[in-house]
Amino acid sequence: MLDKHAAPLMNALSPVTWLCITDATDGHAVEGFADGRALSAEGLEALILVVSSRFERKSLIQRQRMVNTVLRDDLTDGSLHSVRMKCLTPAQWEGAGRPPSLRPGAPCTVHVSAGRNEAPPTIQDNDSGEAKCESKCEFC
Predict the structure, then answer these.
(1) Secondary structure, 3-state, 74-95
(2) Where are the alpha helices (DSSP H) in the chain?
(3) Which helix H or strand E contains 128, and what residues bound it?
(4) Comparing C-alpha atoms, which of 65, 25, 49 is closest to residue 98?
(5) Quick check: bond before 15 cis, omega within 30?
(6) Distance (Å, rounded) from C-alpha 138 to C-alpha 11?
(7) Is the pTM of this model over 0.85?
């Protein structure tokens, strides 16, 4: 379900250098729905790391609003229960060591790398074929 957000985010924030959307759903929306804190028991939780030059000279809240505008419908109907995001400029991302995802060790459910043919050096496939973050950066 989260993959449907990649193209709209890429279009709205073009040019995008890096986009990682991670499904961090842990089931707490079920409890929230039962007591009225969540709109849907099936609501997903997403972690988004997006790198775009469109964020230059924008405040953190302006960057987050740009992303939330794209996600508005799913946030409003409860299919997205929560979103944690980091919206960086390419220089900020490079300065942070090019972290591949918002959470260390969490592989991207959806990953788009525009204008790059290689994955960042912090991503390595393990024997099971899953992506693994080996970054020790404080950013993540």
Answers:
(1) HHHHCCEEEEEEEEECHHHHHH
(2) 6-12, 28-34, 60-77, 90-95
(3) none
(4) 49
(5) yes
(6) 29
(7) no
- 31: which 2 tokens? 């409890």
Residue 9 CB burial class (10 angstroms; 0-12, 13-18, ≥19) = buried
Tell me the per-residue pLDDT of 16-42, one tens digit each, with 9 for 90 and over: 999 999 988 877 766 776 777 767 767
39 SS3 class: coil
Per-residue model confidence as pLDDT tens digits over 66-83: 999 999 999 999 889 889
Give dist(CA 29, CA 36) in Å, integer: 10
Separation of alpha carbons 13 and 54, rounded Å: 6
Phi, psi of 22 (to 5 degrees): -115, 130
CA distance 62 to 53: 13
Q: Once rounded to an integer, what is the mean pLDDT over residues 76-104?
A: 92
Query: Count of alpha carbons within 13 Å of 54, Cβ hemisphere only?
Result: 20
Average pLDDT value for the chain: 79
Six-digit token string for 56: 């230059």
Tell me the domains of the chain and their CATH numbers: 2-133 (3.30.300.90)
